[in-house]
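Dear colleagues,

As part of the handover before I leave the project, I'm documenting each prediction I ran so the next person doesn't have to rerun anything. This entry is a single chain, and its sequence is reproduced below.
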Amino acid sequence: MNVTPNQIEKAISNALDKFYDRRVEKLNTLSLNYLLKRKNPYLFRGKGVTVAAEVVQELVLAFMSSSEETLFGNIFFEEVALAASGGEKALADSIDIVIHTEDSVKAIAVKSGTSVFNAQSKRRQQQAFEEMRKRLAGYRKHYDPIVGYAYGKKSQSSRSQANFREIAGQAFWEEITGDPEFYLKIARLMKDKPQEHAKDYKEAYGAAINRLTRDFTERFCDENGFIDWDKWIKFNSGK
């Protein structure tokens, strides 16, 4: 399948739309309870934080930063890789794309950065590739399982016992597109799309900060406006 530049640009644009929609949705539905249960109140006390809005901003920034990497990988990188490769969406857990060539079948799991696996998740990935191998046995083609990292560098050890290849960054995008410059074109083809979304995102972010700061002040500040650390710590860690 030949993929045109217009198709790639459209895929990137659509993926960015979905990414920003999900970012705004996360902000709109974020609850103070969820944030406070996940973070260390003693750390904030130890740093001498005294302003409710500062607490909330740190909580929201930390949450968004940690969730956006996965969100961007699942929504943006997977969609762009699928469009750019001309492959088919894999109907299997932990595998995203299947590419058929004349003599081979590539099964690809798209990941963001190169530090996604622990021992357990790596075993699950290997199992998923093995199950896909069995499902594709009828094609009688060379089976090529790949974990592709959308950015970064990765040199797979010659002693690796994984049942898949690992390739990252430029090498990954060249593998699925045949274009050694494609990894650079991704950012270029975003064009002004991020800026178009900036206003709506900033408004949603500001509204979330204000809403959560109000909730924090009402529930965890005393009548003089000081943070009631006992209340927060009891909520976070009490029996």
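The mean pLDDT is 93. Residues 52-85 form the longest helix (34 residues).

All the best with the project,
I.
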